[in-house]
């Protein structure tokens, strides 16, 4: 039964609540000896992934029973063709988590038609939730206070995803970006292997984020939908590695705090391409 308070809850606040429910599970199960479930070569889920997803889906289904849901672990459910669909990645950074690293995120996003209208990305261990209503973006602290997200390139830190596959090789591999003199002269690399880094660009904690991964960057990506929506709402520059709008071009992702940083990184990426130096 949907209570009156649930029915009046905005989609953005529901995304926050669902992400927090998943984050609570991830935090509680941290450090346990967890069963692993192989998914594909080099990829697996843990009991924490599955339990966190169950918690998130429970919140979403109770509040919006007519909406479709796509979970990283459970797949799609709900009526096909439904305009409203929730996208859930219950534990981004599973490998990090499995070896005791706290660099993980819990991602929840709502796709309505051709756009993401609400999203939340929770850090289970800081207690922060980065969230957007589709127009603006905030970070909610563990005490419940909200602060607007303000991107900044001042740190010069660029998070680069080095996980395979590398669909644009040999033309472009993100790892080669780190060795370019132009990159070393202006930026310092960081690698946390979690989409938490995408939210950090929106928050001004990273100047940019780059991945050459071609898969999983569709509009209905459970991995990146929340982070992309956060960055766009915060005013970041977001494109594929070819500079075209994300979801439409060659794939990959370049998220930057400002146009100057985006232009500089895109020039370096192009320099690694087939016609580059």
Q: Please give the radius of gyration in angstroms.
A: 18 Å
Order of strands, widest sheet: 4-3-5-6-7-8-9-10
CATH fold field value of the largest domain: Fructose-1,6-Bisphosphatase, Chain A, domain 1
Percent of residues in β-strands: 25-35%
Low-confidence residue ranges: none
Reported CATH architecture of the largest domain: 2-Layer Sandwich
Number of domains: 2
User: Rough shape?
Assistant: globular
Classified by CATH, the class of the largest domain is: Alpha Beta
Provide a short characterization of the protein structure.
This protein has 277 residues and is an alpha+beta fold. The chain contains 9 helices and 15 strands.
How would you characterize the overall build of this protein?
The chain has 277 residues and is of the alpha+beta class. The chain folds into 2 domains: 145 residues, 2-Layer Sandwich (Fructose-1,6-Bisphosphatase, Chain A, domain 1), CATH 3.30.540.10; 115 residues, D-Maltodextrin-Binding Protein, domain 2. It is built from 9 helices and 15 strands. The mean pLDDT is 91.
Q: Which keywords apply here?
A:
2 domains; Fructose-1,6-Bisphosphatase, Chain A, domain 1; D-Maltodextrin-Binding Protein, domain 2; five-stranded mixed beta sheet; eight-stranded mixed beta sheet; alpha+beta; 25% strand; 277 residues
